[in-house]
Every structure is written in C-alpha cells, then in structure tokens.
Amino acid sequence: MRTFVHIISSSGTGGAQAVLCSILRRTDKQRYSTIVICAKDGEYVPEFEKWAGKCHCIDFEVSIPALCQNIRRILKAEQADIVFNHLWKACFVGALAARGIATSTFNNLHGELATGTDPAKLKIALFRQLYRWVSFLGAESIAVSHYNKRELVKYGVKATKVRVVYNGVESDRFVCPIRERVGRPFRVISTGRLHWQKGYDILLDAAKLLPNDIQISIAGTGDLNGHLQKRVKDERIENVSFLGFQSDVARLLTEADLFVLSSYWEGLSISIIEAMAMGLPVVATDVGGNRELIDDGRGGYIVPSGNAEALAESILNIYESGMSTLQMGSYNRLKFEKELTMKAMMNSVYGGYFQ
Fold it and tell me: Looking at the chain, which terminus has fewer C-beta neighbours within 10 angstroms, N or C?
C-alpha cells in the first residue's frame, strides 16, 4: 500500500482546504494510506482529522529550517511514498523536506502567487523566485488552470513539469433544482471570504447602480466584515445583505437566480464551480481561470475586474433576460458534468500519475 502525504500550510477557510477534504474523502483507503500535515490552527483541522488516516498538526510559523526538519521527521516516520504540497509555503518547505524520502513530489499552489495586485508585491516576487528554485529540485507542479500554468512558465518553471488539473466538487452534494421566480425579488448570491481579494467593495458599488428588486446576498466571514457592513449602513445600500458563515452552500445556491464573483484574482474558483453545478448563470471578473470556467455570453458574462459599471450592467442583463437565464444555467450544469466533477479531478490526478 502506497502512503500519500498531503502537506497544507493553512487550515483556515478556503478553496484549497475544501479541495483537499474532497480528495481525502474519495481516496481509495484499500489502495492508499493518507496522511495530512497541516497548520495547527484553523477551521478545517477537524475535517482533516476526520477524513485522513492520520493528521499531524504542526506550527508553520517557526523558522524555515525548523519547519523543514519537523516535516522531514514526519515523512520518514510515515514512510511517505508520494507527497502533495498545497499552497505556497507547503510547496517550498515540503519539496525540500521530501527530497530523498518520497519517490515523487507534487506542488499545487492553488492559484497563489499568480497575481500582480497583491499588496505585498516584493514578498510575492520573492516567493516566485523560491518556487522556481524548488521546481528545479524535481518537484512537479499541478496548475489549477491553463492561466496558472502560463504564470508558472513565466516564472521560469518548465512547461513539461506542469500539469493542468481543474478543481472539482462532489456532484452528489449539488443537485440542480427547478427554479421559478414568481412574485419575488431576483436573488443574487456571492460566497467567499470577506477579504480584499474578493472585490466586495466593487460589488457594493455595483449594487448601488441596480434596482432594489435585485437583492444581493453575501455569504462568508473575514477581516472586511465590519468595513463592508458599515458601508452598507452609511451609504444606505438597501439591496445588499450579509449572511455570515454558511455551512450549507448548496441550499443558498438553490435559492439564488445568479452567482456573482467580483474578485481581483483567483486560481480556479471553487465557488464558481459550485454555482455551475447548481445550474446558475455566473457573472465573474476576468481574472485567473474564470474565463476557462464561464463561456462568455453562454454561461454568463466575464467582466473586467475593478469595474463596478460593467459588473452592474451584466447583472442587469441577466435579470432582464428571462428564459435565457435558465439556458445559461443549464449550459453551466452540462459543462460541470463533463469537466469539473470531483471524479474527473481524481482521475486526472491519481489516474494520470499513479495507475
């Protein structure tokens, strides 16, 4: 039996953590032993402990040499065969620690470091150089979109060392409903961390340009919670509400008519894939792999990031389009079933590398 070790440098809420949990749930326990090495604090620790064969929670904030030594000790003790590193810090330290122990190492940045708009630009530039160096040590890269592959190649990673594997979600958790909108407002949903990356200030600006019959709900928590709620109150934006953390995303999407993502950057958005699985049209910004998910004009609209007017115009177009809204949603559901299920992702990873 081969031993797979997944190393992830953040256990907080995020797409990478959700994807890892799905991978753990679907891994064949008769063929593979699964170990997780994760950051010791975070909402996903109980999930990792539940689905992994064993979970080591460690401090990722110690010095790089100490962290590398700790991880290397665990890899030796667990007799690791294959190591998967998730997020930039795990990719850097995990690749170093696995040398001479694991037969293969794979890095998945989940879209991290793929943006020029991060406030810490010098820090990002340093991490890119470190990642390029790590790639020369033999670790292979998994890119979550063709956009991310191009970015990695631009950093200096060899194209032959990068495989594109789209994120996937569990199809049985997202059953496409029959929607009817009679005598109720048009419901727009946006889900994700309340963080500058998600561009919620732009979404609020767009909301002010829309009629109150278009109701926008934002689900999630984060550092910008107070700031965004204060804006809504002070500026009297009556068509926006905050739902806080929601564990049942499928229910929220069932009750919605449109999904919106206003991000400044993404890798490959799990939130968009979930919306597609639920048969929703999508309006998303032209960042990361969004254009690979949403076919502009067929499954929704792709708009420039940071442009509230374009975002509002596309939302209004779908609101006024009637039956084409259902057609867009159906188109997205079919694309999801063909390309974006967790089964398709697992076949790409385990089938492609290890069978």
Answer: C
Measured from the Cβ of residue 274, the count of other Cβ atoms closer than 10 Å reads 23
What single letter denotes the amino acid at residue 26? R
Q: Max Cα separation, the chain?
A: 65
Q: Which two tokens stand for residue 295?
A: 């076919």
How many whole angstroms separate alpha carbon 104 and alpha carbon 86? 15
Give the position of tokens 């030594």: 69
d(CA 55, CA 59): 13
**In this predicted model, what pLDDT tens digit does every residue of 25-68 receive, in sequence order?**
888 888 889 999 999 988 899 999 999 999 999 999 999 999 99
List, for residues 127-156, the tens digit of each pLDDT value.
Answer: 667 777 777 677 888 999 999 999 888 888
The Cα 295–Cα 335 span in angstroms is: 10
What average pLDDT does the segment 151-164 reach? 87
Q: Which amino acid is present at 63?
A: S
Q: Are residues 132 and 219 in the same domain?
A: no
SS3 label, residue 189: strand
Report the CATH number at residue 32: 3.40.50.2000
Q: How far is CA 13 from CA 43, 156, 330, in A?
A: 6, 30, 29
Q: Which two tokens stand for residue 72?
A: 């290397």
pTM: 0.87
Determine the structural domain holding residue 66 and report its residue range: 2-168+341-354
The Cβ of residue 180 has, within 10 Å, a number of other Cβ atoms equal to: 8
Task: Answer yes or no: do 192 and 262 share one domain.
Answer: yes
